[in-house]
Amino acid sequence: MDNEAKFKLDGLELLRKAAWDSFERRTAIEWKLSLSLWTALAAFIGSIATGKVPVHSYVAVIILTVIAVMLCYLHFIWLRGMGKANNLDRKRENFFADRMMELIPIKYTQDLITEMGDRSTKKLSVWNDYAHKFQLGVTATLSLGVIGTILWAAAR
User: Fold this and answer.
1) Residue 123: which domain range?
2) pLDDT, tens digit (0-9, with 9 covering 90-100), for 80-124
3) Domain count along the chain
4) If 0-12 CB within 10 Å is exposed, 13-18 middle and 19+ buried, where does residue 121 land?
5) Which residue from 69, 79, 90, 156 lies 20 to 30 Å from 130 (Cα-Cα)?
């Protein structure tokens, strides 16, 4: 490999790594925020169930239910934005990795190509990401738990 090819390869690796590092930093923040939200929702359920947050009127029931629904909705919107940014970083990382493979040149095995699909035409969807589905599922479940606990506490 000549110096020019090595220079290009090093530059592509720097760009590929920057895209991947951006993805990793964002997902770490994403999970920390999700865990914080889940902790708050679980604490809220516990506070209502133990009577530390009184639910004696229909106004309180409505307000607390709206809060639970809004938290779930805001988490959905936030995850959607995170997913778009994650997809962009993954596309950039794939692009630079593919250019590196062309420069060397290396080809994927047919088994790997079949498993990955055609990356050049494959559309990364925000909601094809299992992590986002899981996070939203936990948030929705806890939000429903809040609503159920509110209704239970109001009926006591």
Assistant:
1) 3-155
2) 999 899 989 999 998 999 899 888 877 777 777 777 766 655 666
3) 1
4) exposed
5) 69
Which tokens is 39 given? 């902790």
Other Cβ atoms within 10 Å of 3 Cβ, number: 7
For 102, the token pair is: 């062309």
Q: Report which of 41, 7, 4, 9 is spatially closest to residue 105, judged by C-alpha positions.
A: 9
Say what the pTM is.
0.77
Proportion of the chain above pLDDT 70, given as a percent: 93
Measured N-to-C along each axis, helices 58-103 and 3-49 cross at an angle, to the nearest 10 degrees, of 170
How far apart are the C-alpha atoms of 85 and 72, rounded to whole Å? 20
